[in-house]
């Protein structure tokens, strides 16, 4: 590599790091929730916006609400954003990338794992799931999400949702025609909660 | 010496004479036979004409052979058949065939030299064969339809009761067979097919009128008779290969076409026959339909329907009886006893038909099983079928009712119950109820007979496998061990006079594990009982090392003497009731809350206790106010004026209602474990399996004990995924993989 290229690369990394330190907590050396909030505000993006989650995915961020330097570097280098304005401009591209079918499933399952805050936690409470569904699938499958969220809030059998059920719902949106649900077959291996959901929807429709 | 060359005409005229003579013989002219010289002359003529090199007349002679036959047929044979009718025509037909065979035999003897060389050289049919073919082509083919029509006419005549010449028909049939020369095609196509079609029509017509006019039994008798006759007909004058086909045809027209009409006939059909216990007619129906492939299915279906309807009616009756007795305690239970007994009787009744009229045929066993499975599993008055059956067994095995029945009858009935159990889908629930009731019988000494208990458990084990009754068997064994401990205790008391419980005490020590779970209670014991407990504890600790005793006072009984003014009466009560009554030794009058504090019981328990002593049959306590139910602000007074004609009475304490719920909960829990275990076992051996197959195999694995709910299986699968025993395949969400 030519010396100028190397120099350019290291300059870029330096700028990336600089942006990082603008938002990082000086004691912990990480960007914490407060920092993320500032970052969002500067990017003129709501903290609950799905694009923030997408950014976390791009970083492969491990802990919800925190970004490490390493994670930050990975994402911004890939996005070729070494300044806040470039980062902001990169968001639409990022969204397009995530929404590509080959990436979306991965993003969708990441979203679930990202919310598992406790060690050995395997499921997420209904309230949080409902929010997460809106964020992640709301734009693409609004009707299904609204209906499922209503069901989750009214039923009593389940207090938490696990990964299998979470992934099952995406497959449901992807494969099952809505709102007629004509090709849904409860004899197949759909998670039981979806069988119950479909029954509930059908009862409401009649 | 050189043989003379024979010219054709010369030789032929000689042969012609021979042939003419033969014809005359066939026509019956006297003096008819060939001498050996005559025969030799004819034979040699042909021999010479065929062996001389030139001119060699083999070809012409072969043709002449055939011509002689055809000529004769045309001139004599055909006309003789054609100018006759009916029986006479048939006779001609038979005779002409016989004649033809003779003619061919003789001619082929004369011409036999041709058979040696010429025939094989030219690949021509041999003389005899060629000769018979001539008859077939020139006679048979021309007259066969007339002959067939005639024969069939006679058959129908015989069917209508007319007399016919069976021998003649047999001969005609034989001709048809022989003309085929080894092939049955001619017989089958020319005769048999027509005959079968005609027979079919004949019986179809009969069936249509009989089915309307006759009752089912009468129709069946006619059908049986027709079949017998047709069989006889076939054996007398048809070819043996036709018998089966004819029988099938007749069966089809008489029995298959109208099967439903016949079996479902309103006043005389299958159901009526069952109602009237018409064993002979039912056996006939079985016999007739047994031979028809799938013929028994419609009969078995009606049978199944009949049994199901009767069973359902019994259940409905029970339901109605229970609701009309609503309000009275134990109405459901009583009704249940009657129902189970009736179901057992129903089973006996219909099983008798299956083994009797229906010759133990599997189709009927299956129908019976499916019918019983439908109604045996229905609950009555809110009580599950499993509990009803368990209640029935409890009744059989406990004191009181069982004394009225002989040992044989009890054993027999228990056998039948175990057979009936096969139809129940919730066998594990049944076992759990049995276990609870067995515990009560054993602990309150309500069991009639240890032998019956043991024999019953053995039967259950044989029917449902070792695991099924193992806990219950453990309980029975425990009782024997407990008796030993009690004996040792009494010895201990004898040898240690300073240790006195003060009351006659007997303790039953149970091993946890096979007994149902009992809560040990916080009952505040009266002083007299506290002493007993301490004494026993001292004994037990001396006998065993580091074993802990948990006292279950809710299962104890106490004999307590009530010093009533009219006369003292011995009361057999539960320990709880005794503890309560002893409080009245210190005060005449107690309030609900006072008793509650002193005994340290729950509200519900106390209400139950006080009800049994003040609102039930025997009012040992007087309740103020004298309302039907116990309320927390009631007061209670010892009823010193209580009396009864007996000197000793039992005051029962009804069990908690929640017990039933607990049993169902326990069983549900066990089922979850069983399903989990089955799923893991299946996946461990299959490694990868689709959802539907997994569910199916799981059902198969547990169904001998209970019928699993598909939703529950799904839930367990999901649970196993969460616990990382299984995972979904990434490509196909309908496949599961075992996670090692």
Automatic annotation (TrEMBL), chain A:
Task: Write out the GO MF terms.
Answer: cullin family protein binding; ubiquitin conjugating enzyme binding; ubiquitin-like protein binding
Gene3D superfamilies in alphabetical order: Cullin, PONY binding domain, EF-hand
Give the taxonomic lineage as stored in the record.
Eukaryota, Viridiplantae, Streptophyta, Embryophyta, Tracheophyta
User: Domain DCUN1 spans what residues?
Assistant: 11-202
The protein's name in its UniProt record: Defective in cullin neddylation protein
Q: Which domain of life is it from?
A: Eukaryota
Q: Which organism is it from?
A: Rosa chinensis (China rose)
Q: Which InterPro entries match?
A: DCN-prot (IPR014764), DCN1-like_PONY (IPR042460), EF-hand-dom_pair (IPR011992), PONY_dom (IPR005176)
General function of this protein? Neddylation of cullins play an essential role in the regulation of SCF-type complexes activity.
> Which is a Gene Ontology cellular component entry for this protein?
ubiquitin ligase complex
Q: Name one GO biological process term.
A: protein neddylation
One Pfam family name is Cullin_binding
Which N-terminal stretch is annotated as signal sequence? none
Automatic annotation (TrEMBL), chain B:
Q: Which residues form the Cullin family profile domain?
A: 384-614
Keyword annotations of the record? Isopeptide bond, Ubl conjugation, Ubl conjugation pathway
PROSITE patterns assigned to the protein according to its UniProt record, in alphabetical order: CULLIN_1, CULLIN_2
SMART domains xref list: CULLIN, Cullin_Nedd8
Any single GO CC term annotated in Swiss-Prot or TrEMBL for this entry: cullin-RING ubiquitin ligase complex
What GO biological process terms does the UniProt entry carry, in alphabetical order?
A: jasmonic acid mediated signaling pathway; ubiquitin-dependent protein catabolic process
Q: Which GO terms describe its molecular function?
A: ubiquitin protein ligase binding
PANTHER family to which the protein is assigned, alphabetical:
CULLIN
Family per record? Belongs to the cullin family.
Q: What is this protein called?
A: Putative cullin protein, neddylation
Origin species: Rosa chinensis (China rose)
